[in-house]
UniProtKB/TrEMBL annotation:
<feature type="compositionally biased region" description="Polar residues">
    <location>
        <begin position="1"/>
        <end position="11"/>
    </location>
</feature>
<dbReference type="Pfam" id="PF16455">
    <property type="entry name" value="UBD"/>
</dbReference>
<feature type="region of interest" description="Disordered">
    <location>
        <begin position="1"/>
        <end position="26"/>
    </location>
</feature>
<dbReference type="InterPro" id="IPR039869">
    <property type="entry name" value="UBTD1/2"/>
</dbReference>
<protein>
    <submittedName>
        <fullName>Ubiquitin domain-containing protein 1-like isoform X4</fullName>
    </submittedName>
</protein>
<dbReference type="InterPro" id="IPR038169">
    <property type="entry name" value="DC-UbP/UBTD2_N_sf"/>
</dbReference>
<dbReference type="InterPro" id="IPR032752">
    <property type="entry name" value="DC-UbP/UBTD2_N"/>
</dbReference>
<feature type="domain" description="DC-UbP/UBTD2 N-terminal">
    <location>
        <begin position="16"/>
        <end position="113"/>
    </location>
</feature>
């Protein structure tokens, strides 16, 4: 048996297009600076929960890039996407990486800082 992402193993090197997650809503309106702080906290702590640092670094670069560049980053790092929105990914060794939607897209109720 393969890992949950093994369905893409046959198409290795053929990552489907990376997409931003569907729109979401934060429990309360959130400012851009608060969102940036949440993202920084996630990226600072993510490697401590397992996985390889270089994969976390590649995931961060892909999350912060436009979708076409994200695809190139994911392919070059050997990351297998379970979902095109990058919320669940695997490395080549089968390590699982879960990304919250707030690091991948902006909420509907984002308040621009003035």
């Amino acid at each position: 048996m393969g890992c949950a992402g093994s369905s893409q193993a046959n198409a290795e090197g053929n990552v489907k297009q990376v997409k931003k997650p569907r729109s979401w809503k934060h429990p309360q309106p959130i400012t851009i600076s608060q969102l940036i702080q949440l993202r920084e906290e996630f990226w600072d702590t993510a490697p401590h929960y397992g996985g390889r640092k270089e994969i976390w670094d590649a995931l961060r670069a892909a999350a912060e890039a436009d979708p076409k560049l994200s695809r190139v980053i994911v392919e070059s790092a050997g990351i297998i996407l379970q979902n095109p929105d990058m919320t669940v990914c695997f490395d080549e060794r089968g390590g699982r990486y879960e990304l919250p939607t707030y690091v991948l897209s902006e909420p509907k109720n984002l308040i621009r800082d003035s």
